[in-house]
Fold:
Amino acid sequence: MIKILFICHGNICRSTMAQFVFQDMVNREGLADRFFIDSKATSTEELGNGPHYGTVRKLKEVGVPVLPHRASQMRRSDYKEYDYIIGMDGWNYRNMMRILGGDPEGKVSLLLDHTEHPRDIADPWYSGNFDATYEDVVEGCEALLEELLGESLS
Structure:
C-alpha cells in the first residue's frame, strides 16, 4: 500500500483539497485498496477544525466527495509512516523540514514538483481564489498519480 500525506499550513484548505481530490481519483481508477491518503498541517492554528467552507464549496461544485476530516499537525513520526509527504508551497517545505529534521529517504516534495511546471500552490485562505487552487491541485494530483502508476503499480 502506498501511503501519501498532503501538507499545508493549516490543513483546512489546500492539503484537504489535495487529499479529497487524490482519493477521488484513485477511487475512480479502482485503486482505493492500494493507497492510504491523509493530510495534516505544519501549524497548530486550525487544529480540530473541519475543511474551509471555500474548499467544501469548490469540491461540491465539481462533484468531489468531501470526507470527514479535522485538522491535525504533522509529527516527526509521520516520516516513518508515509511513503510520500507532499507540501503545497516553499513555506510548507521549510516547515516540514523543521518538523521532520530532514529528508534522508527523499520522501518530501511539493505537489506541483510532479508536474512539468513546478511552482507553489497559492493559499486560498489569503487569495480567496479556490478555483485557481483547485486547478493547481488537480494538475498536481493527476501528475502524481500518473507518476505512481508508472513507477509503483505497474
Observations:
- The mean pLDDT is 96.
- The chain has one domain: 2-151.
- Helices lie at 14-28, 53-62, 78-81, 90-100, 124-127, 130-151.
